[in-house]
Amino acid sequence: MECDKCGRDAVHHAAYSGAHLCGDHLCASVERRVRRRVREDSLLPDDATPEDPERWVIGLSGGKDSVVLTQILAETFEQDRRVEIVALSIHEGIEGYRDESLTASERLTDDLDVVHETVGYAEEFGVRMDDVVEDDPENMAPCAYCGVFRRDLLEAYAEKHDADKLLTGHNLDDEAQTALMNVFEGDVRQMAKHFDASLGPFPERNPTDRFVPRAKPLRDVPEKEVALYAHVRDLPAHITECPHASEAYRGEIRDLLLEFEERHPGVRHSIMSGYEELAALAAERHRGEDSETDEALSPCVECGSTTANEVCRKCSLLASLEAA
Ligand code: SF4
């Protein structure tokens, strides 16, 4: 199998496009798609300047997706001082899992000369995920606690760094899975939220906005190509799966999608293009309700973060853990 571009040995056949690509041309193609997404989602506003740069906080777990995203964006804007990048890693307190990925994150950010900060559940909340799993006062899956704590820290530290955008490394497979889960669950409001929260183009941030806008510049790239990119470029990505991973439903959807993609190449891309249109319509339909909801938001009486209730979800989970 030869590369369509240069005739060297191909490392990848993208059945959805018919392309055979060598390592170098695969990497160039991945980088092109990320840069196109940055442009099409208007991530970099026209008025950003080296004196008043745009600041992006990237959630860096040390896994392949966030490592590849950080590498591509750091290289893209290496000479362009209109963008400042801060990498933020979160230590959940999972024995034998997160330490190695944090070492990978430190190596990457040292190599790229990117500012890197690590924050942990233990220091911030006085809990470790290993203990949460053992106590489990709410009788929930580990990821349900972990997701709430992670979202809270990402938001808080994006605010602390005065970020204009919060970037995450979700790839095409992640996004197509989420789209399908929302459709299967008939969750139109979640679609609307997804559209408003993370699909560009992004309007300029208003100082009164309550949340830092989120963006996913890797969302056009299939998971396998992200993994190959990390491998070809020998990036320090950590591959091991979390021992508490428990999103069984997502796992079923992932298997279903992979099977479908093999039989009908391109299905992930078509799901996403249809879903984005649907999500835009859902966002339009629920926009009035959203602003009412937004007005109902207020600071949590415990920690001050924005919530629709008196006490935010993170604080109520912490209270039940303390009582356990
Ligand atoms: Fe947390 Fe679940 Fe991810 Fe493990 S798999 S780090 S428990 S969200």
Keywords:
11% strand, 5-stranded parallel β-sheet, binds iron/sulfur cluster, globular, alpha/beta, Rossmann fold, 12 helices, 324 residues, 52% helix, two-stranded antiparallel ribbon, 9 strands
Can you give a write-up of this model?
- The longest helix has 30 residues.
- By secondary structure, this protein is of the alpha/beta class.
- The protein is built from twelve helices and nine strands.
- The strands form three sheets. Strands 5-4-3-6-7 form a five-stranded parallel sheet, with helices on both faces.
- A hairpin with a 6-residue loop joins strand 8 and strand 9.
- It binds iron/sulfur cluster (SF4).
Number of helical elements: 12
Number of E-type strands: 9
Ligands (ions, cofactors included): iron/sulfur cluster
CATH architecture: 3-Layer(aba) Sandwich
Cα gyration radius (Å): 20 Å
In N-to-C order, the SSE pattern is EEHEHEHEHHHEHHEHHHEEH
Question: Which class of secondary structure composition applies to the elements?
Answer: alpha/beta
Summarize the structure in short.
This protein has 324 residues and is an alpha/beta fold. It is built from twelve helices and nine strands. The protein has one domain (48-277): Rossmann fold, CATH 3.40.50.
Write the layout of secondary structure elements.
Elements: E1 12-14, E2 19-21, H1 23-40, E3 54-59, H2 64-76, E4 83-91, H3 98-112, E5 115-120, H4 121-125, H5 129-135, H6 142-160, E6 165-167, H7 172-184, H8 188-198, E7 214-215, H9 223-232, H10 248-263, H11 267-296, E8 298-299, E9 306-307, H12 313-323
Parallel strand pairs: 3-4, 3-6, 4-5, 6-7
Antiparallel strand pairs: 1-2, 8-9
Bound molecules: iron/sulfur cluster.
